[in-house]
Batch of 4 targets.
Target 1
Amino acid sequence: MDNYEDFFTEHFETATLKGERVTLRGLRETSSGPASAENIFATIEKSRDFLAEHLPWIHETDIFDLKKRIRSWVLNERFGQGGCWLIFKNSPDNPDGDFAGCILMEANLRNRSATLSYWLAKPFTGQGLMTEAVKLVTRFAFERLKLNRLELLVSVHNGKSAAVAMRCGFIGEGINRDFELINGKFVDHSRFSLLARDVY
């Protein structure tokens, strides 16, 4: 591919991705209803202590900070640098689904790679939702975007997140020491990767 950056910019969008358990919808700054900043914040509020254990930005987040983050995620998509999908649990009683969490992609176009990160509110854990969400984004990244590499960085204390990576076929590459400052302590992270040739 002669100019991958142009290809990525042309083809990247946080397209709606549908699975058996979840539907992923691109985050939009003007979204309303279940995808609104207010609903995302309400979900965070109900799981704040649970999420803050591994997400350093959660603890002090208010609705204004969240809206700034949403703007930055939307701008990333606009400039072809990645984006954010909202994860909705499919529900027969709710055609919109129940908002459960987020999955983000940060692209490195020079290397045709991207880093994924994700979170789920506490009531939605342990149901296979994130595993399916990661698989949906992985397929989109390799088939639609023609990326070569995806990676995940997971706190060594976050066994459930590491299990998601492994269930999705990601391979452990080692430890990034003191990778992130979480709640006043430097935390090592495990690094996982998946290559297009591992799948196809």
Target 2
Amino acid sequence: RKKSNCLGYVKSIDLYEAGTECRIRTLEGDVFVNCGEDIYIMIGPVGEVYPITAESFAQRYDVSDMKYDKVFDYAPSAIKMGDNTTISLLPYARSCISKPGAAIWAKQVDIHTKVFNRWNYETYMNAKIGDWLCYSTFDDKDVYVVQKEIFGILYEKVE
């Protein structure tokens, strides 16, 4: 289950107009999203980014009025397809708190694994040995990879 953490998020329409396709560089590979009212981009505890639907966001996070002022070695960004302009996410980021107890199914992978999911229609996420393959209990299409170094920060095991 998810631990309570302060994370960042950006509404994709704060970056680009609805319908604009952009590329998000995640730790596990590039992800393509069409910006819209229902698409958010999360910023994790070590600066990792990933898209999430507004519905999943509401189930997993509470909006916070704390200022989001994290600094990372590599600034999270989004790249507009077509002209390749890059926008830093941090100036648009707001804070949210992960709801403790939000459950997932997870399995640590023991072989290099390629994961295709709703966001990666042209590419895939890479799971290295020791990373975690995760599956949401809220959304049967939400399959993703969490690096082994980050998993323990975000989740705790339950029986």
Target 3
Amino acid sequence: GVQCLTDYGIHYLEDELVELDGIRFYGSPWTPAFNDWAFNKSRAKIDKVWQNIPTDEHIHVLITHGPPKGILDISENMDREIEICGDSALYKRIINHVRPSWHCFGHIHNWGNHINAGTLKLSAHDTNFSNGSVVTDNKFGKLTSNGNIFII
């Protein structure tokens, strides 16, 4: 028979919270609509998804597919113009309500000279942000990633 992912220590989080060894993780795969990809919502409707992130207990690690607006999210649009493409509704929910210790995301790869690489901490807020999808990708050709390693 097919074994459950948790039998292997894997927890798939689709708008769910899990506590492991006293650390609370919340994960969500949604991003603002882009092409016709899975787990997309229009920017006008995605705020409803972020309202589901609980605020009654402190979340240590928030995991989303994409970044919040203005945080390690610089890319190019189809016209090769610089674009800050993160989600403003997600940013507002994190800063004003959730305030996780860490927010880990991906989706936006490297741009320019590793401008999205590493972690970021805004001085006025407690959340540390990490873009784990920063890669040397030669425009999505050869993919190599160092990711980010951090200790909670």
Target 4
Amino acid sequence: MSFNLVMIGPPGAGKGTQADRVCRAYGIPKISTGDILREAVHDGTSLGRQVKETIATGSLVSDEIMIGVVRERLGRPDARRGFILDGFPRTVTQAKALDEMIDGRGPIIAIVMSVPEPELVRRLGVRRVCADCGTTYGGPGSVTESSGAGRCTRCGGLLVQRDDDNIDVIRQRLRVFTEATEPLVRYYEGRPTFASINGLQPPDKVTADLRAHIETALAMSRAGGRAEA
């Protein structure tokens, strides 16, 4: 049975790591809004041109544009059996649009990755990106965790700290995230397929909890439970 996973969590919560694991386990694509926007711009679609113009002015991408870009991506064949969304929806308007997009395509399983702010600050403080290919590194057991430096395992490039990963910017980003996502969490939390996962646990335990909730949500859906609000 297909399912559609929405992962909600602040920067540093481990959404990317866990999304990659779930994708491999269930054979469904991981779709991040950052990748969607870059691909739309690269392909030169009408929506991509709108995104490019918006980014060039320094403005935030509107709900209307984001909904259009995501709608286009979810219409591709590889997403028909389900998908994992990282970074969308960000607003209740986007969440309502997502409900309409995938009506009849399996349940929406909404997961909040919960991690205390001091741990998020610590994780983001050791996060590094490859200066050449942009691959992100960080988290328990990673090369950045032990040394704060290193080389990219993909291309050998130097790992550097992102400009927005200094402590003052990190704390501001976390405040903005909390304020923006509280209404979104309220939108999903009344659904039987909603869950909050403790992201402070070891990564393998987080993965186990995620998969257990997915299986429970799918069992409820098979038994007649509804994913819609």
